[in-house]
Amino acid sequence: EMANHERNKRLLLELLKRPVNGRCADCGAPDPQWASYKLGVFVCLNCSGIHRSLCSRVKSVTLDFWEDELVEFMKSNGNDSAKALFEKAVPAYYYRPQEHDCAVLREQWIRAKYERMEFTGETKYPPISYTTGFYEGVLWKKGKENTQFLKRKFVLSERDFTLTYYNKEDSKGPKAIISIKDLNATFQPEKIGHPQGLQIIYQDGSHTRNLYVYHKSPEEIVTWFNAIRAARYAYLRMAYPTGSDEGLIPKITRNYLKEGYMEKTGPLQKEQFKKRWFVLDSQNRKLLYFKDQLDAEELGVIFIGTENKGYSAKECVPQHGRGKWKCGVTVDTPQRRFIFMCEQEGEQKEWLDALSQVLSRPMAPQDYAKCKIFWRQRAA
């Protein structure tokens, strides 16, 4: 019995050495130590918990007892053959979660693959909702001036490249018609305080506008997210007809590089330090700041160019004890110097790392255009 157990464990560890099994079948985390012996896949601890909640049989590769026939089943299957079956037809725009993505995305990806069999390539009837180019429903939306979430009707149209929402069921017209051109969506469960919390961002004139929404159903909010991604992808294909998927897919939606509170002083650096919520949007090369983390509009925005154009970020020691926080970050632009204070050194280091990632990335032609418009608006 014991010898058998050891032999089977050795065989499973051999299987894990195959490159195809070296990452979790679902989120790509390295070195998976669990397996679903119903599906024949090796998964990480996090994903194994999701599989268990779907009544899929899971065991630890090293800690559990494995019967010979289960080892044989793992041997004749594995991550590559499961992928060929369950991920045969994943749409290009569909978001494939990674290990650091939020729980709702990872869980719905696993359910979509193995439970709802959405990607096996068979024709579905009725068609899967995010594939039809039109989606409507009700989301709970945070009020612009208050913290209350109320039900609002949303309508997404790929044909018109718009996302529209209505304030009242019977209202004459929409509250806002948002162009897909500048739309972004990112899951923000911690900030919104709901596991299905989604932030929708768009340009409203010279301002950035944030909507904070959630749905009580995890499947529904992920459907909204992928429906938005489908419309964004269609828009990008139209706007950049020669663009490759490899170039377009990262532009569909994006998470922010870094967010958090810092203290900020005014242009003379003699004003009181005030606590502000900062967001670094790497793709647009913008550092935005808000009074609070769930604000609808920013108070200000700083364009982050490249070092050879006179932009930089470095650590600074506070000269005067006006702020409560002591870990400083100086951001220099050709126009002026900004001084920010972080509460802890860890935060300061994260901000400096994130800013240096943007500073070291060459500017694209459209960045120069954005930069010109940006400083023109500031001057106005």
UniProtKB/TrEMBL annotation:
Cellular component GO terms, alphabetical: cytoplasm; plasma membrane
Residues covered by the Arf-GAP domain? 9-127
Query: Boundaries of each PH domain copy?
Result: 132-233, 255-360
Known Gene3D superfamilies for this protein? Arf GTPase activating protein, Pleckstrin-homology domain (PH domain)/Phosphotyrosine-binding domain (PTB)
Instruction: Give the subcellular location.
Output: Cytoplasm
Keyword annotations for this protein, in alphabetical order, are: Cytoplasm, GTPase activation, Metal-binding, Repeat, Zinc, Zinc-finger
Among InterPro entries, the record links this protein to: Arf-GAP_dual-PH_domain, ARFGAP/RecO, ArfGAP_dom, ArfGAP_dom_sf, PH-like_dom_sf, PH1_ADAP, PH2_ADAP, PH_domain
Q: Name one GO molecular function term.
A: phosphatidylinositol bisphosphate binding
Principal location class: cytoplasm
GO terms (BP aspect): heart development
Q: Which PANTHER family match?
A: ARF-GAP WITH DUAL PH DOMAIN-CONTAINING PROTEIN 1-LIKE PROTEIN, ARF-GAP WITH DUAL PH DOMAIN-CONTAINING PROTEIN 2
- The entry's protein name is ArfGAP with dual PH domains 2
Q: Please report the organism this UniProt entry assigns to the protein.
A: Cyclopterus lumpus
Its lineage reads: Eukaryota, Metazoa, Chordata, Craniata, Vertebrata
